[in-house]
Amino acid sequence: MNPNDLNTALYKKMAAEQDKFRDWLKSQPPAEVLNHAYEYTVREDIVMAMEELELTDAQAQALLDSPTPLADVYRYFEKLETGHMDAVRDSIENRADDVCKLKEPQTGHALVVEPGKKPYVKEITFSLESLQKEVGGDIQAIYPFHEPVALICDEEGKLNGKPLNRTLRDEDGQIYDVLAGTFLVVGLAEDRFSALEPRLVEKFSEHFMKPELFAQINGKLVVTTMQEQSNSFNLQPLDSVPIYSHTASYAREHNELDAYRTSLNANLQCKEAIEATVREHFDGMYLSHDAARGVIETYGMERVMLVLANTVQLQDWDGRYSPRNKEWAKTIPNYNSDTVRVGYAVNSHPAVLNGFIDLVREEYLRRQPLTAEDIQAEAERILRELRAPDMPNSPHGSHYMARISPEFLNRAGSKDHDRLMNLLPFRSLAFTGMKGLPGTYATILASEDRSKELRQPRPSIREHLKQETKQAAPKGPAHKKREPER
Predict the structure, then answer these.
(1) What is the crossing angle of helices 301-314 and 350-366, to 10°?
(2) pLDDT tens track for 193-204
C-alpha cells in the first residue's frame, strides 16, 4: 500500500470513529453533551487536518494499527500545555479594569466629529454604554494632544469598513494615523473622562472643522478637503459608483438621470486623475511600473478601463496606440453619444498613454484568480532555483532559498499558498521573509535532497469520498411519462 492509500485509509478510519462518537453523543442527555463539547470540537479539527495532511507510510501505519487512532491523538493533544487559560484570566482582569475606570458616569459637553460633517457640541453621559452608543462600537481612547483631552473612537472602525474621518498628524504635519467612523473629543479628570472645557471646545472645533476626503493613489494616502454641500458631504467611494450602461435619453425615459449623472461625473473625475497620474509618473523617458494602481484603487478597474477604452476608440486613427490595445478597446462597449464621450477622453500624450494602458491591462490580469497551471509553473520555477546553487545561499549558509515571484503573491490566496507548498517535495520547506532582503522566500534545509521531483497534486480525500458515495448511490426507478388526458 503506498503512502497516499495509507493516508486515505487513516482518514476514513478517523472519520468513521468521529461519526460513531457523534452518534453516541446525540443519544446522551444535554448535560453529558455539554461535558463532551470541547472534545467533539477538537476531534473535528483533527479529522479536518487529516484531510490534507501527508504522513509518511510509517507514521500512517503506526496510527492505523490502533483501534481508535482519533481518540489517541485527542488524548495526546489534551496533555499539551497552552497559555489558553492565562489569556482568559488576563481578559477578565483587563475588562474589569476598563469597566471600573468608567464607573460612576457624569454628564457634560463633548465634541462630536462625524465623517463628512463639521464638529458639533453635544451633552452626553460619560458611561461606557453611552460612549459606545455615540461611536457605534467598542470604544478606544487615544491621547494625541498635549492638552488634557482624549479622542474616543470605535476600536474596530477600520476593520468594520467605517468611512475614514479625520487624520492625525505629527509636529511636522505628516500623517501617522486616520480615524474611522464617528469619534468624540472629551476632557480628562484624574482617571476618568469628563466634560470638555469651553476653551478646548473652541480649539478642537477649529482643529477638526474641515472634513477630509481620502483616496489611495499608488499606495499613498491622499487627503483633500471635501467640497461642502450645506453641512454634509458626499461620502460614496468613487470605486463603488456603478457604471451606467445606457444613454441619456434612456435614463430620462426611465427616471434614472441621477444614476446617469453620477456615473458620468465619476468618468470625468477618473479621466482627470489618469492625466494627473501620467504627468506625475512619466519622467520624460519612462513611466513608473506602479503608476496605474492608485487610480485603479480609487475609481475601480472597470471604470478605468472604460475611460481608457473610450479614449482609444475616439482616437482609433492614431498610430501611437498599439494594434493590440486598439483591439482590446473594441471589446469594451460604450453607449454614450460621441459628444458626451469626448468629455472623458484622456488628454495625455498617446504614446505615453499607450504604456499606461499596458500597465492597467497587466494589473487586470494580475487580479484574476490563479489557475492550477499557474501554481504548477511557479512550483517548477522555485524548484529550479532551489537546485541551481552549489552551496546553501541563505544569509547564514544553513538553507537553500528561492524568492517567490511577486506576481504570484499578488494574485495568491491562502489556498493557493497551500497548494504551492504541497507541490514542493521538501519536509523542511517554509515560506518566510528574510531580514534585509525584499520579498518572500521558499527555504529548505541544506541537508534536503534537492533532486526530488514535484509532488503530483492530490485531490481532497473528502471530495473523493463524496464522489464515491454519489456513484454508489442506487438510482431510483424511472418515472413513467404520463399521457395527457383527452
Answers:
(1) 150
(2) 889 999 999 999
